[in-house]
Amino acid sequence: MDHSGHGMTMDLPPFTLGRGLAWSADPFFLIACLLGLALYGWGVVRLVRRGDKWPVGRTVAFVAGVLSVALMMCTKLNDYGMVMFSVHMVQHMVISMVSPILLLLGAPITLALRALPPAGRGRKGPRELLLMLLHSRYMRIITHPAFTIPLFIASLYALYFTPLFDTLMGSQAGHIGMMVHFLAVGVVFFWPIMGVDPGPHRPGYLMRMLELFAGMPFHAFFGIALMMASSPMVETFKNPPASLGIDALSDQNAAGGIAWAFSEVPSVLVLLALLFQWYASEERQARRSDRAADRDGDKELAAYNDYLASLNTRGG
């Protein structure tokens, strides 16, 4: 029985990390990852040739994000993930909570806006279409916390605790669609919170932290529910192949532990990124204030001193 379309998953030997990391590419994700790296590389080269600078850290973050997707989907982890709940959960958590953060820190939209040439007057090219999408009502809706937080939570509970998961796992197209969904949900959830790119919904830093922590308890509860369950809850993983030598319930408990642990990892990563962005924003604001003071001879301070002097004179 070939679940994934690129490996006889029923004959897999017991899982080890070495076996899991062996090459076994899903064609869809392999092409998508190579295309993503090629387009990003084109953008960076175009800026450099023009004499512009592009932060190395952003390139490193984006490449790491793409490679994290490739690691989950172009290795035997993807084969084992079809029959082992624990390995599937690692795939889900990395693709929905680690890959999006790294991709967003790479600022691909900002790079595209800077690298794509403007179309001629009265015409619409890729750059103009991207700007239209960024400012569209659709984008305002899908990046609003009233949409992103329920979607983030529903992607766990509505998927795993209903027959929908088994239906999607029954075909290669369904499995690919589910993984793309995980990545997309992660991007729209984390983008308004810590994305570097411009976006329609960008609240203050304190509100962003609240948005981050609003979804995480539900994530932890989901993990705990799997860990505490006394019977297998997902049909797909109820009867693992005998060749794996695993117990379905123990594997489900391990999956729950992975989901619970991962609710902490992105929180720390995003919190660090947010604090760094907040600090950098304050620094920029301070530099702007200093430049303004230099230009106008610090009129604001002089006016305040005159005001104090007038109060003093009146008091006298």
Classification by helices and strands = mainly alpha
List unreliable stretches of 5+ residues. Answer: 1-8
Instruction: Estimate the global geometry from the Cα principal axes.
Output: globular
Total helical elements: 15
Please state the average pLDDT score: 87
| Strand residues, percent | under 5%
Major pleated sheet: none
Number of strands: 0
Question: What portion of residues is helical?
Answer: over 70%
Distance between the termini: 96 Å
Cα gyration radius (Å): 25 Å
Order of helices and strands: HHHHHHHHHHHHHHH
Secondary-structure map:
Blueprint: H1 17-20, H2 27-50, H3 56-73, H4 76-80, H5 85-105, H6 108-115, H7 126-134, H8 137-142, H9 145-160, H10 164-169, H11 172-194, H12 205-228, H13 248-262, H14 265-296, H15 299-315
Helix pairs in contact: 2-3, 2-6, 3-5, 5-11, 5-13, 9-11, 9-12, 11-12, 12-13, 12-14
Describe the structure.
By secondary structure, the chain is mainly alpha-helical. The chain is 72% helix and 0% strand. It is built from 15 helices and no strands. Helix 2 (27-50) crosses helix 6. The chain is globular. The N and C termini lie far apart (96 Å). 30% of the residues are buried. Residues 1-8 have low confidence and may be disordered.
Spell out the key features of this protein.
316 residues, mainly alpha
Quick structural overview:
This protein is an all-alpha fold and 316 residues long.
